[in-house]
Fold these 4 entries.
Entry 1:
Amino acid sequence: MYRQLTDDALMQLLRNSDAKAFEEIYHRYWERLALQVLKITRSREDARDIVQEVFVSIWKRRTEIELKGPLIAYLLKSVRNVAIRYIEKNITRNNYLQTLSDSTCRDTADPGLYSEYRELQHKLDRAVASLPPKMQEVYLLSRNESMSYKEIADHLGIAENTVRKQLSNALKSLRSSVSELTISLLVCLATILQVTGL
């Protein structure tokens, strides 16, 4: 029965907390949304998590969602926004920017974007190199070696709280140093979405 319903009818049922309507919307669109996010993050796991996060949010806000257009447009915009926030949050993660630029921006129609992205990667590398020695060491052990706070503390012979504080300060410094990365990243993503017709 639910498969035959229009999106508008499903949304009306969803506003009345109809779980079956929610399931139908999920099954109807999750694959398309995951593919959309995959084009941005290049990670199947991240794509799945982001789509799930969006649907959890939709269920929580089910009584207050007011659509001003097609449901699919709302869903695509939602996953795009969450994906961009995810990238902003992970902008200083080891090799994240490089992986994104190599596999994504290179595929766009504008080779200038790829070149700009490589320059931004170099800026990030220089920002890491300019960190105070101990802070840089903590950051690199965390990002390059994927060590936990405890492992870094044991390795360097310092307290876990010191590791946590050094890493937090390193990330603040890097985000401040490469703030333009996010702007260029959004430009790149906008180009990708335009090129792929999403």
Entry 2:
Amino acid sequence: MFVIHYFIMSENQYFRAGTGTIIYNDQNEILLFQRANKAEVWQLQQGGMDTGEAVEETLARELFEETSLTLEDMEKVTLYPTWLYYEYPDSIKAHMKDPNSLGQIHRWYFLKLKPGTAIDVSKAKDKEFTNSKWSTFEDLLARADILKHAVYTELYHYFKTNILK
């Protein structure tokens, strides 16, 4: 059965734009980050664009601010071909400061970490994450919040067919 959703948006409703990363290593593991405000949540790194900022600037800034890693720590950078979005459910929208925010939309990057690069989120400027760990996409999908599950699933399929060639 197919369900079609129609979204009628006024001119002031929006999806917050940003970037996200899938950091991976030579063993094809991905780096997950534990949220500071929700210790049970492990996720991929992502962050919002500032006004007037280019996507590549957001990528470098958010990566460094949240993980203390830089693009120079990466051996390879691969851009996912399209923007991916998720919409907030009504239960989240009801508690948001801005009721016009419908969700988030990101440009995703697959970043292959150079071997031997140290990862220490305690050195990050923003204290969004308290810990990091190497894991698998399968593990992430098994634990993923329903909000991000479809996006993570799409990234997983791309990873398997285009990154792991």
Entry 3:
Amino acid sequence: MESYTITELRRELHTRADPQQAADLQRYFKTAPGEYGENDRFLGIRVPELRRLAKEYRPLALDAVVESLRSQWHEERCLALLLLVAQYQKGSAETRDSIHGIYLENTRFVNNWDLVDVSAEHIVGAHTDPNDVSLLVRLGGSDCVWERRIAIMATLHWIKRNEFAPTLRIADLLLQDTHDLIQKAVGWMLREVGKRDQVQQEAFLITRYRRMPRTMLRYAIERLPEARRQQFLRGEA
């Protein structure tokens, strides 16, 4: 198997840099002062290209991947997370334990919603026992918005396996979170539960929807039949 170095990876990323696209991405990911992605820097490379590079560079040594995760460049951090996911999925139990630990030690670099969403499910969710969500509860109680998003997005791993208890537990914890990105993520995960089991989704919502932020509620009920959706929106469910 061909080996790669972090120098080669970085050189390849920079050859694909697109300044105009970088400017567009910096606006899209809210990098202005006071916004959630403040001071993040972009090369201007789209995710499909990063996914292609992740396949090519999958043999990159784990210590080099970690160095990439700590990069100033958003795309390099994204690529590092894609590599961690790939190495986790192909790795031994010892490798998976190591990658899970590395991820938790470096959450400050998983610092935008897209970075959370490409990784939390596969590294944190996959490493969580659905009967013991104490780690997710700890992350969900964090002052860091990205750790809170990791907590709820990690549960997508179990939603896909028709195990909804982790999602409902963390959704309850984050029910009145004031951050828009958490409200959207919680609503999204509740919608995913409802796509598979509307009865469980509604059982959760019916005693809570009046206390939920409107954004969270709208995301959660988006796939319900229109008449039922309107009942929730009017407070008549």
Entry 4:
Amino acid sequence: MASTPEVTPDAAAPRATTRLATLEGNLRTIFGDRMKSLIVANGELTMVVSPVEYASIAQTLRDHADLQFEELLDLCGVDYEGYGEGSWTGLRFAAVSHLLSMTHNWRLRLRTFAVDDDFPVLPSLTGIWPSVNWYEREAFDLFGIVFEGHDDLRRILTDYGFVGHPFRKDFPVTGNVEMRYDPEQKRVIYQPVTIEPREVVPRVIREPGYGGTR
């Protein structure tokens, strides 16, 4: 019985490049102007779509024979406020998903932005990939992104009485309140944060000759 030849990294690289080019061509052919952009960088593809097209394009990404992204591996919220040291001029909140096709052995990053920075709303993808359920809840909890059509959109990491969304860039690092047990009331209570904000600058001591200097 013949053994399977070992695939070296050098031999695998052209295959990966060809596969990436094939996926890029398929996406451009199938979606065309429905995509806002298709970015190729670091051997990865990032597809940006409008929230209006988001659910429809996601359905096609899963079902089209030339794409077949059967699995959604992850979804996270992103807050672009202050991104690039304040150079960002686009919309603030985005949902970013990572998709995998087991059939074709390729991956895709799918990104869409909510049109309202004050009240970000995006369609839910739970009807297409059920695995996104808890990821959308996490993005809602930490970033305040509302996923329309999600049938159980509630906090998943913070407690039920938490106010605000702790991964937003304008949320204070120390938070707004803290919890403690009150022995007089015999229950857990909230109170204003007692930690004073401060910046700690580390002291760096370099030995003589450090880095080759004399």
